[in-house]
Amino acid sequence: MKRTAMIGHLTPAHAGQTVTLQGWVNRRRDLGGLIFLELRDRSGLVQVQVEPDSAAFADADRLRAEYVAEIEGTYHARPESQRKGGLADYEVIATRVKVLNTAKTTPFELEKGDSVAEDIRLKFRYLDLRRPEMQRNLVLRSKAVAAVTEYLNREGFVQVETPMLTKSTPEGARDFLVPSRQNPGEFYALPQSPQLFKQMLMIAAFDRYYQLARCFRDEDLRADRQPDFTQLDMEMSFVELDDVLSTQEGLMAHVFRETMGVDLPVPFPRMAYMDAMNLYGSDKPDLRFDLKFTDVTDLFQGGDFKAFAAAQAVKVIAAPELTRKQIDELERIAKQNGAGGLAWLKRDGDGFTGGISKFVTAQAAELIARTGIEQGGTLLFTAGEWKKAVGALGAVRLALRDLFDLAAAGPQFHVSWVTEFPQLEFDDDSGTWTYMHHPFTAPHPDDLDLFGTDRQGEIRAQAYDLVLNGFEVGGGSIRIHDPAVQAKMFQAIGFSAEQAREKFGFFMDALEYGTPPHGGIAWGFDRLIMVMSGATSIREVIAFPKNNRGVDLMALAPSPVEPGQLADVGLSVATSEN
């Protein structure tokens, strides 16, 4: 027989009807001759009662956890004494049970999956994905894809697929390389992003493009990164920055409304990069809670406290009362993020005690006035080179968020823009300038004359990041469409004309054939779904992810290949001798 309904689609209107359900046995209990089953499918779970005099009893007696079964019976309300409200008040009285397949004992209890080591869950991912939490995450992802497609199609975007085998170009991370059998000694690269192709689609007169693009980066992994991942990629012609941002706000609001029933307030607030760093120590600040830095560099400059006197920046954050153990842990976090240490004070009346209190008697009143620190509260300081000082205190800010659950008082979701990033940043290791986003980002038109001068570090980029709950879930920019400006950008990052042509010659040629003003953005789609679902890792919202070492434990990849396969592409594996 065919199933008549998904379990989760049953409603009180089905009461009294005969239903046929198919799914997996979640649990089985024998009580006084009665057999109680829980049957589970992707949509939900229902209790099934099999009575001892039922023709179904013998077959039900064979069932064990994770067997696949078909159950026919009457859907009806449970006894009034067992009702608690909702669909759990209904059950199926079985008249027929059919075992569709048996199952081995699972290597872990699915109901306890959250407490199982992640490597075990990934090795048996097909079982892990049966858990309701995982199914909810992937259904949410599917709904988000549908919402994106609906909105962008309605807004006139054209979906175009770009190549998966392409040329290796410098985009900030290592490429995954693919040897070419037909061209010995030459290699394709898997795309880190479709950046150049989507810009060439604008040159090709496709005014609005989108793609859910598979991208690949050979980089160290974290909880919010995978070697292969999905970007929602978009590009628009004949636009300015505000046009791109307003379109993205409409799309994001639509996705949240359609998938979660959440109304995001639009427009999203905007914050310049320097303000984000100076106030929150991050270019992706979590704004669900309001805990800002105060700049007190001037209070200590040239003073007696040498650790602060010559510092480029002295930043302070006002925290609740902290124990010494908590302060020590926050100092460890600050040092881990580049600070030399974490100075502290505890407010006591009109002054301070503990920590560096003997150095701040003259500044005490002004510190209290500027920071608004409450009685018993703790001031935490970082000092030194500006970027390290703000970055370390930013990490401390997030630790305070987690320690005191500060985000709980704010909205469930907070979306904002960070704009006006620097076009260039200086790489101390190489002693050269490099791009902050990518070399195709357009500079602010008022800053063009700064290229090639000793002030080129002040050039503002027409770049923007989309930030959700302290995660960067999107990044983009208005692009360079003038070949002369593109040449200046390549020169600024140290590319000779020959090097630029070697790497990007095909793109530079395309710019010469009537390139419209254009801009776009890419969303980290896995990361977005992670935040929406409340998961702590993007591995929880990807069906078959790699672990934190880049290994697929289920398929056992990466793995050796046959010598003949290597020979086909002119490669051999070098072994090192100890």
TrEMBL record:
Keywords: Aminoacyl-tRNA synthetase, ATP-binding, Cytoplasm, Ligase, Nucleotide-binding, Protein biosynthesis. L-aspartate binds at E171, R217, H437, R479. Residues 195-198 are annotated as: Aspartate. It is an enzyme of class 6 (ligase). One of its GO terms (cellular component) is cytoplasm. Its EC number is 6.1.1.12. It catalyses: tRNA(Asp) + L-aspartate + ATP = L-aspartyl-tRNA(Asp) + AMP + diphosphate. GO terms for molecular function: aspartate-tRNA ligase activity; ATP binding; nucleic acid binding. ATP binds at R217, D218, E219, Q226, E472, G524, F525, D526, R527. It is found in: Cytoplasm. GO terms for biological process: aspartyl-tRNA aminoacylation. InterPro entries: Aa-tRNA-synt_II, aa-tRNA-synth_II, aa-tRNA-synth_II/BPL/LPL, Asp-tRNA-ligase_1, Asp-tRNA-ligase_1_N, Asp/Asn-tRNA-synth_IIb, AspRS_core, GAD-like_sf. Its main location: cytoplasm. Residues 138-558 form the Aminoacyl-transfer RNA synthetases class-II family profile domain. Homodimer. Belongs to the class-II aminoacyl-tRNA synthetase family. Type 1 subfamily. Catalyzes the attachment of L-aspartate to tRNA(Asp) in a two-step reaction: L-aspartate is first activated by ATP to form Asp-AMP and then transferred to the acceptor end of tRNA(Asp). This is Aspartate--tRNA ligase. It comes from Deinococcus grandis. The lineage of its organism: Bacteria, Thermotogati, Deinococcota, Deinococci, Deinococcales.
